[in-house]
Amino acid sequence: MTRLRIGTRGSSLALWQANHIAESLAKLHGVETELVRIRTSGDRLQSASVAQVNEAIGAEGGKGIFIKEIEDALLSGAVDLAVHSMKDVPTETPAGLMFAAVTRREDARDCLISREGLTLENLPQSARVGTSSLRRQAQLRHHRPDLDVVDLRGNVDTRIRKLEGGEFDAIVLAMAGVTRLGASAKVTQIFDEDLMLPAVGQGALGIETRADDLQTSRFVAALDDAETRACITAERALLRELQGGCQVPLGAWGRVRGGELHVEAAVFSAAGTEFVRFDEAGTPGEAEAIGIRLALILIEAGADRILRLAGRSVGSS
Questions:
Q1: How far out from the chain centre does Cα 79 lie?
Q2: Which residues share a beta bridge with 286?
Q3: Residue 204: φ, ψ to 5°
Q4: 30 exposed, middle or buried (CB, 10 Å; 0-12, 13-18, 19+)?
Q5: Tens place of pLDDT for every residue, the chain, 317 residues?
Q6: Residues 22, 234, 91, 152: is their CA dihedral positive or negative?
Q7: 140 near 147, Cβ under 8 Å?
Q8: Residue 88 catalytic?
C-alpha cells in the first residue's frame, strides 16, 4: 500500500491542517500517511520580529520564512507532499514543485479576541492590541488611531496565552486558524471587509508536491476546489504584480458570486492614514488577469508610493 510522508510545521494549527489532509487522502484513496515535522526559520525565531527574521536568514518581505525548509525537504525527497497555509506561501514556486491542490477555503476573515469580551469599537482608549501583521496593524490604526498596536509573534496557542496572561487587552487572529483549533468560542468579533480585508490566501490550504511525482500529485489533485483556486490565483497574481511578500500592508479578498469572480484589495500606509482601495471582476477562468488588472489600478492610484513609504518597492512585473 502507498505510504506518503507529509511535511509540516510542528505547531498545533499546522498539525491539525496536515492531519486533515491525511484523513482526506485516506478517505478518498485508502492512502496511508505519516507526518514529518520540520522546524522552519519562522518557528526558530519566534521571539523576533518578522524584520529581524528576514535579516537573520536573508529573506525579504517575509517571503517563505514558514515554508522554505519544508520545500527543501520536498525537493530532496525527504517528504512526498507538504501542507501550507496559502497566506504563508511566496508568489514564486521553486522549480520542480507545484501546488497540486488548493482545498476549499475556510472563513478568510480576521477576528478579535479580547479579555473583556469587547469589540474593536468598544475597546478603551490606548488599549494594547497584539498582532504581527503589518496589514492588520495598518487597518487597526486606520479605524482606531488611539490604540496601542503592538507586534505579537508566536503560534495561535501562544498568542491566546499571552492575551489571557494580561500582556494584551486584545489580539487579532485569522478566523480560520481559530476555528480549526476549536477556539471559536473565544472570538468577540469577526471583522467584515469594511473593517479589515484579509491577507492574500488567508483561510486556504495549499498542498505542494514534486512536479515529477505524478502518482502523489494525482492523489492530491482530488482535493482541489476550483472556486477557491480561482480566488487564490487572482489574489496571488495581485500580490506578485505588486512585488510583495507576506508582510506588505495589503489586504485582498476574492470571492465567486453569481458565477463571477470579484476581488477587492487595499494598500495601506503603516500608520493607516493613507490607503487606496479598489475592486475588479471577471470570470473565474481569467483569475490571474483579474489580479494583475487590479494591481495596476492600485498602482495607478498611488499604491506604489504608499508602499515605498512603508519601505517596499513595487511596480509592474
A1: 23
A2: none
A3: -110, 145
A4: exposed
A5: 579 999 999 999 999 999 999 999 999 999 999 999 999 887 776 555 555 554 444 444 456 888 999 999 999 999 999 999 999 999 999 999 999 999 999 999 999 999 999 999 999 999 999 998 999 999 999 999 999 999 998 889 999 999 999 999 999 999 999 999 999 999 999 999 999 999 999 999 999 999 999 999 999 999 999 999 999 999 999 999 997 655 679 999 999 999 999 999 999 999 999 999 999 999 999 999 999 999 999 999 999 899 887 664 334 33
A6: negative
A7: yes
A8: yes
Give the phi and the psi of residue 55 in degrees, each rounded to 5. -65, -40
- Other residues' Cβ atoms within 10 Å of the Cβ of residue 23: 11
Q: How far apart are CA 201 and CA 186, in angstroms?
A: 24
How far apart are the C-alpha atoms of 241 and 36, rounded to whole Å? 34
- Domains assigned to the chain: 3-104+204-224 (3.40.190.10), 110-190 (3.40.190.10), 241-309 (3.30.160.40)
Place of cell 476549499: 104
Catalytic residue among 43, 72, 80, 88: 88
Phi, psi (degrees; rounded to nearest 5) at 105: -75, 135
Task: Determine the residue type at 92.
Answer: E
